[in-house]
Amino acid sequence: MNNQTFLVEIGTEELPPKTLRSLAESFADNFTNRLNQEGLIHGEIHWFATPRRLALQVEKLGTEKRSYVITKRGPTIQSAFDSNGEPTLAAKGWAKSCGIRVDQADKLITNNGSWLTYCFKKIRPCVQILLPEIIEESLTRIPIPKVMQWNESKVQFIRPIHHVILLLGDTLIETKILGICSTRTTRGHRFMGIPYFNIKHANQYPEILFTLGKVQANYHVRKEFIRKEINKAASIIGGEVILSEELLEEVTSLVEWPVVLTGRFKKNFLQIPNEALVQTMQSHQKYFPIYHQSGELLSYFIFVSNIESKNPEKIISGNEKVLHSRLTDAAFFFHKDRYYRLENYLPYLKNVLFQKNLGTLYDKTQRVKKLAGWIAMQIGGNINKAQRAGLLSKCDLMTKMVCEFTETQGFIGMHYARQDGESEEVAIALKEQYQPRFSGDGLPSSQTSCSLAIADKIDTIVGIFGIGLHPKNDKDPYALRRIALGILRIIIEKKLPLDIHALTNETVRLYENQLINSNTIDDVIHFILGRLRSWYQDKGHRNDTLQAVLARRPFKLVDLDLRINAITQFRFLKQATDLSETNKRISNILAKKTDTLNAKVHRELLIEPEEIQLADQVNNLYSILPLYYADFRYKEALMKIASLNTIINNFFNKVMVNSTNEALRINRLTLLYKLQSLFIEIADISLLQDNF
Radius of gyration over alpha carbons of the chain, in Å? Predict the structure, then answer.
């Protein structure tokens, strides 16, 4: 048979759960790409992943030998021969690499040039020879941040490899993959099923693993089974689970035979802030907390075991004891922290570095306090509340709760601030200062929260840029790209009247003499605005629209956003095309001028009716357009400008711009310059490509 099922399984030590899926998908992608490069016909490719294996199953893999044509392109005809028509060294070297003489080469002639070429047939090796090469290359191309070496062969992979299976139909391909000889033997579950057994045919995978080895190798099936069982278990006790996809993926990657169980903890632990309880269960124990339909946390948890026990109560009891110990620690730290007010932790920030060249967290806190108040003043917020939030913003980092449960920073600050009697707006700001933490995350809810979040983020960016440690290439150790996008999202989506230039300038001022980069302000603004490109592209805006608007340097981001939306809406109307063509015509005329233009259009030099009419309309627009701009009605302003199209065409049809009369010529060029100035007030439309 020419088409057969192919199976490869790589058995390893336990793979890192947070990257298991990406490892499997990368393996599958690399393998698929290499099959396609070799021209191997194949059906659907399925990937499988468990904590101790990566596997691929290929349907209907073509196994017959085939010949294919390879074309090697050589030097251009011009460089292949000298003035006497003799082959050059370049031509001879290329021909030698092909195993031919220069006179045996063909010539490829196209509109773009002419080259020497050589075509020859090659028979592809049989798949039994190709597949091991493809597999090993596919494995080595998996992006692995840290590899391991486990024997004297110096072979490296993310984890030690124990077994390799390569089956083409029922035939074992005998080879070595990363130093391990291939066999038919796979491993079952560590504690259930048959520990070792042979796979006779590639079609048996993954069913044979499931029935004999008690291993569910299908990642997607395993994940959906866990999801279904978790929801079922929660409903039994009258609760529900807010499933974290990230945690669900991690748990799926930790088990080969999932068994979902429910445990409980003492109700008195519910006195601890929910965020601390949830973080303890999710981050430390990989448990799923259960909520009442009203949103209250229940004293139950769900976990996924990797074994089907005859006595599940023992497993449940063991997990309850572990969680009890963790929550006992949390309760101790929580009550210990309450001996002091949140503000009492402020002096301890002097002992923690923010950055060695930028001072301590206490220094940062003082800057953020002042900057948050300044931002609140700019956006109409409460200055006192913003400053208070800034002062308390990092205090919870010194508490025992956050030191032990780092993921609770911000949340704990909010709870402690409430207990101290701080205003609710200040308390919530302490939690929301870190938002948005990731793409799609929620934004701060109040002006106080926005002021603090922006102040904290811009202080970091300015400080790092100010000492010359800005991101380079793909290295961004301070996550400044994410922070910058967070600033943009808050200002634009919350429609805050904040000037990014003034904000950066004020931040630099607060650093006083600590910054050594004299171009910090320009560098920071360029960096922050540079984050807009991908963001607006994701929203469906074209890159040239953004560039055209940025050319006008609108530092108020809300204004910039309105301009971009106006241009995007306007550019596909017929009036937009007419306006673009008119702008190009005027630009071409003005580019060729040698005269010095007047400061204004002299009415006494307007002779033709068409130029008088155009001048009147231009003057009228100079009077009314500022009213449109003041209300940010940019699309309407563009429509007003575009309404001049007929008058402009009449002007060009009837009036000789480059008159031999110098005074008339300069006056008409000045009129066109004034007209063009109207075009570029909103955006430099000369930067817009076709289809304005």
Answer: 35
